[in-house]
Specification:
Order of helices and strands: EHEHEEH
Structural class: alpha+beta
Radius of gyration: 15 Å
Shape: globular
Number of helices: 3
Strand content: 25-35%
Distance between the termini: 22 Å
Length: 107
């Protein structure tokens, strides 16, 4: 079985986030605060070489910090059975979307 690859940018740790987040339902696992990220491109079951080529493309972007705040939590993946929950950005959404759109297609 091939792994599913994705390219993401790590978010800085947010002090007090773990205490501020509501307890998730049974069977839902939270990322550790150090694992927070913004997914740039989901590559799926490509080989490692292709994944590394996609990762190398991040150097084409202006990766300046984007001030952001978290918004609504939404399901990700199949509408019939989601595979993850993600917090959308409220503040910083437009800037993050522009960054992602500029990188995703070449990756």
């Amino acid at each position: 079985m091939k792994p599913n690859w994705f390219v993401a940018l790590r978010c800085p740790e947010i002090p007090g986030l773990a205490e501020a987040v509501a307890r998730p339902p049974e069977g839902v696992r939270l990322f550790a605060p150090g694992g927070l990220h913004v997914t740039v491109a989901f590559l799926g079951g490509v080989g490692e070489e292709a994944a590394r080529r996609a990762w190398a493309m991040r150097g084409q972007a202006d990766l300046a910090a984007i001030p952001a705040s978290l918004g609504a939590v939404v399901p990700m993946g199949s509408p019939r059975r989601f595979s993850a929950l993600a917090a959308e950005l409220e503040e910083g959404r437009e800037a993050a979307c522009a960054l992602i759109e500029g990188l995703r297609a070449p990756m």
